[in-house]
Write a structure and sequence with these properties.
The chain has 648 residues and is mostly helical. Helices cover 68% and strands 0% of the residues. It has 36 helices and no strands. Helix 19 packs antiparallel against helix 20 and helix 26 runs antiparallel to helix 27. The longest helix is centred in the first third of the chain and has 34 residues. The radius of gyration is 36 Å and the shape is elongated. The termini are far apart.
């Protein structure tokens, strides 16, 4: 096939397909069979005086009516209609050889039959091993070859029928000749014929009758030609074929279509894609506006994608919103993105201006947009840190899905951040019963001082190591709980297993905590070795940078440890290191003032952890300080915290 050249990036062009734009934007690869599936819309039955002279033929009339009743979208369900149309039209062509309209419609039916019922394309997924020629494989190969031979015969016959119809349709019937030329162009693509011949044929169709369907057909023919060329290249070259050549031709096709039909939604839709590929966000906005205006004004019967206008409009709302974001007009973008349900883009804007996005969401929800409750909850929780408001939206979701694990877990998180550890525990346990991902249950139990229950949860999992995969974090967390119980020997055993698993992410906490257990057991040399190994790791996970500081303190590098802690505080919001941990770390490093400062911040901003404070070994050195005892007593009175048992 002769090479045509293009400049629009090739990968996007190959995404186009004949549901005009909906399938294009879904990223479905183009195929020549897609052309025939949509043939009835792009090549309609010709209405003319010349056509009507054949309408007295019962076979012709019945064949055309049957062909029009065939649904290409549900082709496997009504193959018999196509067979009946072909039968009638074949008889008509035999009885009336001069009926070019019958020849044209028969050619359309023949092309459609390639994609109806069973075809060789149904077996594209089959991978053969040449060395294993079983009877079943040989039979299947023979069947595929038979289907391919049938399809090749249909292509050839369709081409001949279209050529015949062109010679028979009267010269005065420009519309009828346009249909025949368009059909021939598609049939030639099916044959992977010379590209110049294909484009010359469709250009003749446009010259005869410049209808919009002819322009659209030319665009897709160019795309399909490109696909056929690409398929013939070595695999390593596919996707790289003349990116700077073929696109220019298709750009010209799109612009020609738009120039002839500037008020047509489909023409505007193509120009939106053109603007996207040119990285012209203002062009995307302008052509989207034209598209929406034209959709309101156009007769639905003239829309090729009429049944999908809503879906396409939603997609273009999203594209318009994205373009507005590129232009720095986030406030304008939000309305489009909300209408399109573009949560990822809305999250980006919310990270910069959550209040503005939330106000827009509330306006839509007031008008009945309850489907936005999930997004509203996430913005309130993650960006505004308004956990009470987030709870209201999550509770709305629970009404529809009372056992949804994600919603239950989010509610547990909100209660936990509000300091309501008891309710956090209730919802965390509900999450656990659903089998959902759960980060709050252990935190809530530990915060209430119920360490034994956390130990049992982890021990039960470890006991099932033969049946489920146990990772280094499981042993590390169990070892940490044993430290809280001052069970140094069991703690060291679990933490040693965690270290042995070689998990780079959790190795620093496992080594540091193991060093603490060994030190408490009087094994100072082994403890020092564990601390040194923790410090040898260069790739420190941000989450555990504060433990790196404590390891420095354990080997006598107190000043360096305090410098690292300053870095932890500086990046605290980024790494989510709690004020509680920082307070405990400063207690370990012997800095009383810093310990009290961050413990006070902890009570102001985080769950109270009063049960954990009673047990945390890191605070053993400050428990008798009058200032510390006074602060803890005040908080216990504030939260009415007397025992680790649940109150509700």
């Amino acid at each position: 096939m002769e090479v045509l050249g293009f400049t629009l990036p090739y990968t996007i062009l190959l995404a186009m397909r004949f549901k005009l734009l909906i399938l294009l934007l879904l990223g479905t690869a183009v195929s020549s069979l897609a052309l025939t599936r949509e043939f009835k819309k792009l090549i309609p039955v010709v209405e003319s005086k010349q056509y009507n002279q054949w309408s007295d033929s019962e076979l012709f009339r019945l064949g055309v009516e049957t062909l029009n009743s065939y649904d290409a979208d549900n082709r496997h369900d009504n193959v018999e209609l196509l067979d009946a149309a072909i039968s009638c039209l074949e008889q008509e062509v035999a009885q009336h050889p001069g009926n070019g309209y019958a020849a044209c419609n028969l050619a359309i039916a023949k092309l459609r039959s390639m994609d109806a019922g069973e075809s060789s394309g149904d077996y594209d997924y089959v991978d053969y091993v040449d060395s294993v020629e079983t009877a079943e494989v040989l039979e299947l190969k023979a069947k595929i070859q038979e289907l391919k031979a049938r399809e090749e015969a249909l292509r050839n016959e369709a081409c001949q029928l279209f050529k015949r119809s062109i010679s028979l349709i009267p010269a005065g019937d420009a519309s009828g000749l346009c249909v025949a030329h368009r059909g021939l162009a598609v049939a030639l693509v099916e044959q992977e014929a010379d590209s110049a011949l294909i484009i010359n044929t469709i250009n003749k169709a446009i010259a005869l009758h410049p209808c919009k369907a002819a322009y659209v057909t030319r665009i897709f023919l160019h795309i399909t030609i490109a696909e056929n060329i690409e398929r013939q290249l070595p695999e390593e070259d596919q996707g790289e074929y003349h990116k700077d050549q073929l696109g220019q031709v298709i750009i010209a096709d799109i612009e020609d279509f738009y120039n002839h039909f500037p008020n047509d939604p489909e023409a505007c839709a193509f120009m939106i894609l053109r603007a996207q590929e040119s990285r012209d966000p203002q062009g995307v906005v302008d052509y989207c506006d034209m598209f929406f205006e034209n959709v309101k004004n156009v007769d639905a019967e003239n829309l090729i994608f009429d049944e999908m206008t809503t879906e396409i409009s939603t997609m273009f709302k999203k594209e318009r919103g994205r373009a507005l974001m590129e232009l720095g007009r986030n406030a304008d973008a939000v309305d489009d993105l909300l209408e399109a349900g573009a949560k990822d883009e809305l999250n980006i804007i919310a990270s910069e201006n959550p209040s503005m996005v939330m106000d827009k969401i509330k306006q839509r929800m007031a008008a009945g947009g309850d489907e936005l409750s999930q997004l509203a909850a996430r913005i309130a929780q993650d960006y505004l840190h308004d956990y009470k408001e987030a709870l209201q939206y999550y509770e709305m979701q629970l009404k529809d899905s009372p056992a949804d694990a994600n919603t239950l877990h989010s509610i547990a998180q909100c209660y936990y951040m509000l300091g309501d550890v008891d309710n956090a525990l209730l919802y965390a346990e509900a999450t656990d019963r659903t089998g959902g991902y759960n980060t709050i249950l252990d935190k809530a139990l530990l915060g209430l001082g119920r360490v034994d229950e956390v130990i049992k949860r982890h021990e039960d999992r470890v006991a099932m190591a033969d049946m489920i995969e146990i990772d280094a974090r499981e042993y590390m967390e169990l070892g940490y709980c044993y430290l809280l119980k001052r069970d140094w020997q069991r703690a060291e055993s679990c933490l040693g297993k965690s270290v042995a698993m070689g998990d780079e992410y959790h190795v620093i906490p496992a080594l540091y905590y193991r060093g603490i257990a060994l030190k408490a057991m009087g094994k100072k040399a082994e403890a020092r070795k564990a601390f040194d190994e923790a410090l040898e790791h260069e790739n420190i996970v941000f989450e555990y940078e504060h433990l790196h500081a404590l390891a420095l303190g354990e080997v006598g590098k107190v000043q360096e440890a305090r410098e690292v802690m300053e870095s932890v505080i500086e990046h605290q919001d980024f790494v989510s290191t709690s004020n509680y941990d920082i307070a405990c770390d400063y207690a370990t490093l012997g800095d009383k003032d810093k310990m009290l400062q961050f413990m006070q911040l902890h009570f102001e901003k985080e769950p109270h952890n009063l049960g954990l404070i009673d047990k945390d070994w890191r605070l053993d050195g400050v428990r008798n300080l009058p200032e510390f005892k006074r602060l803890i007593a005040q908080q216990k009175e504030k939260f009415n915290f007397t025992t680790p048992a649940r109150k509700k």
